[in-house]
Amino acid sequence: MARCQARLETSLSHWLPPAETHPAALHAAMRYAVLGGGKRIRPTLVYASGQAVGSDWEQLDAPACAVEFIHAYSLVHDDLPAMDDDDLRRGKPSCHKAFGEAEAILAGDALQTLGFYVLTHDKSACDSVTRLRMIEAIALAAGSRGMVGGQMIDLAAAGRQLDIAELEDMHIHKTGALIRASVVLGALTRPGLAAETLERLDHYAKCIGLAFQIRDDILDVEGETDILGKRSGADLSLHKSTYAALIGLDDAKQRAKELHEEAMDSLSGLDGKADPLRWISLYIIERDR
Predict the structure, then answer these.
(1) How many CB atoms lie within 10 A of CB 128?
(2) Exposed e or buried b for every residue in 178-191, given b needs 16+ CB within 10 A?
(3) Is 242 helix (H, G, I), strand (E, B) or coil?
(4) What is the DSSP letter of 27?
(5) Reduced to 3 DSSP states, what percent helix, strand and coil does the chain have, rounded to the nearest 5?
(6) Is-above-0.90 flag for pTM?
(7) Each residue of 12-30: b (16+ CB within 10 Å) or e?
(8) Count of C-beta atoms within a 10 Å radius of residue 6
(9) How many CA atoms lie within 13 A of 60 on its CB side?
(10) Domains (ranges, CATH) in the chain?
(11) Residue 79 contacts by C-beta under 8 Å, 6 or more apart in sequence?
C-alpha cells in the first residue's frame, strides 16, 4: 500500500496543473484537495486489480489517478455547507474552509473533468477501445446512477429513518460504485481478460464497497477525530441512518466480516498475484481511520 501511495503521489502531481498556473487560486485549491493525504484505497484497488490479472505498474498509473481525482472532487463537494457541512478532511481544514466555498465548488468541478482528461490522454494504459470502456465505467459509477445518485438519495433521506434495504441501496451507489469502478479499471488494462474473471472481480468489489461503508459507520461511533482526520460522530449528530444505528455495532461488525468472507470467495480462482486484493479487503474491515 505504501508503494502504491508513493507512486500515486508522483503521478497525481504530474497531472495536476502547477499551483502558479493561471488561474492560480483554482489550481492551488485543486492541489490542496488532492495531494498529501488520504488512504488512497480506490487507486490502490486499481493497482491491486491490475496486478492480479498480470498488468504492469506503468499501465495502471493513469486509471489510478483518474479514480483519485474523481474521488477527491466528491469529497470537496461532500464537505460543503449545502451537503455534509464538514470543516475537517484528512486532518486539515476542508477545501472550502481553506479557500472559500465558491473556489471549492470550482476546484471540485475541475478535478472531475481532470479525471477524464487523464484517461483520454495517457496512452500507456491500453488501446483506445479499452480506454473508452474505462471512461464508460467511471462515468457511470460517478454519475446519477452511481456516486452522485447515492448522494442525492442521502440528501432525500434527511429527517427520516431508512430501513436496511434502503441503506444498502444508498451506499451501493454513493460509496460502492466508485470502488467497483476502481477494480474494473485495473482489470481492463489486461487485454483479453475472461468475462468470468471480470465478473468475479466486480463481485469482490461490490462486497468490499459495502464493507467499507459499514466500517465507516462503525468508526463514526468508535473513532476519534484526531485519528480519523475528520469529525467523529458527524452522522450521529445529523441523525443519519447508519448500519451502527440500525442494527447495532456488534451486528454491523459481523456483517462487515461476512462481506469480507464473500469477497474472498470471489477471488478463489485467482492465484497469489491477487493477494493484495485479499489484504485490502481485510484492511477495510479492520482499519481505524
Answers:
(1) 8
(2) bbbbbbbbbbbbbe
(3) coil
(4) H
(5) 70, 0, 25
(6) yes
(7) beebbbeeeeeeeebbbbb
(8) 11
(9) 26
(10) 2-286 (1.10.600.10)
(11) 85, 86, 87, 89, 94, 95, 96, 104
Q: Which residues in the chain belong to E strands, given as ranges?
A: 88-89, 92-93
> Which residue shows C-alpha cell 434495504?
165
Collapsing DSSP to helix, strand or coil, 89 comes out as strand
How confident is the prediction along the chain (289 residues), in pLDDT tens digits per residue? 888 999 999 999 999 999 999 999 999 999 999 998 888 999 999 999 999 999 999 999 999 999 999 999 999 999 999 998 999 998 899 999 999 999 999 999 999 999 999 999 987 767 889 999 999 999 999 999 999 999 999 888 888 888 999 999 999 999 999 999 999 999 999 989 999 999 999 999 999 999 999 998 999 888 665 554 555 555 555 567 888 888 899 999 999 999 999 999 999 989 999 999 999 999 999 987 7
| H-helix segments, 79-189 | 95-99, 101-121, 128-142, 147-156, 164-171, 177-188
Report the alpha-carbon distance of residue 66 to residue 27 in Å, rounded: 17
Amino acid, single-letter form, for residue 40: R
